[in-house]
């Protein structure tokens, strides 16, 4: 029996043992399963309790359920990852679209800044060119205005430039300056930084303010240019008027004057003048007017037009009179001016002394040749201070008054002669009084 059991155990490794008995109480008793493990001569057995079997089954079920859940998660995770990736792709596309829109906006802003910069550079270049032009004009106007003031005299200034443009200051005799010295063709930083910014109050951009500034400066520069042209035109007109007034006064008195002075026989088709040449044309016109006035003045200054004894009474005019010594009618060839002994006698025009000494009834007499056949004589002097051949300027002292020669009292005898013939000095004095303001 024992050997049979051993043989059986060698042939079977696991043999379940069936219960041998039954519980008599409450029916059949459920015995636990026993597991016998035989290996060679070794036999092992395990008793499996119901709760352990339930635990093992539950563990196996949990593992199976976990595996299923993990498998399901892995399967569903791909869908979740795909949805997340798609959402991220959409967000990335939206960001890229936004970045592209911002780049386009930046490009537009940059383009506008470049255009504003180019426009500002162009305007600044124009202003600098006009500043250079005005500076050059100032250099040309300085001498000619000084000459015009000397020749024409004080002429009312042209209409001043309008107020409200404090950026520019200047006049015809002073080079204009304005507050764009910090703006140069290469300095555009303020405008490139501000061109896209607006004033929160009125929405005005810096570019708009710059445009208004340029318009204001241009208007002021234009006003200065117009003032210059107006001043030049006024001076030219005044020069021509003065020359005409002198010439007309001389002609009315029958005194010689070049009738062709300032006149010319010209003609030709009318060709519109380039605005850039207006200034040069006006300056040339002023030069010609001043030359004309200067020539007329030179002609007038050659004539004895000034009063030899200003402020002194004429005691005997030119013409027929009763001789003071004989009491008979006689021709008085000059004018007598009451003057005390020793008063300086002055020549009435530039010339050269031709006689200086005793001359019969003239007493001590000086004769001055003024050219063009005109000469003046100064008689009854108490002293002679010039010599023959001496050149004199208008107003130079030739001697002192007295009562030498055929005279009844101290006075100055003054004669004007043309080609050796005595003429009425009053005619010259009248013309001189008229043209004195122009000479």
Q: What is the CATH architecture assignment of the domain at 314-435?
A: Distorted Sandwich
Mean of the pLDDT scores? 76
CA-based gyration radius: 63 Å
Structural class: alpha+beta
Give the termini separation.
176 Å
Count of DSSP-assigned helices = 6
Enumerate the spans where pLDDT stays under 50 for 5 or more consecutive residues.
Answer: 1-18, 20-25, 156-202
**CATH class membership of the domain at 314-435:** Mainly Beta
CATH superfamily of the domain at 314-435: Glucose Permease (Domain IIA)
- Largest beta sheet, briefly? 10 strands, antiparallel
Task: Give the DSSP E fraction (strand runs of 2 or more residues).
Answer: 15-25%
Q: Can you tell me the overall shape?
A: rod-shaped
Order of helices and strands: HEEHEEHHHEEEEEEEEEEEEH
For this structure, the CATH topology of the domain at 314-435 is: Glucose Permease (Domain IIA)
| Number of distinct beta strands | 16
As a percent range, the share of helical residues equals 40-55%
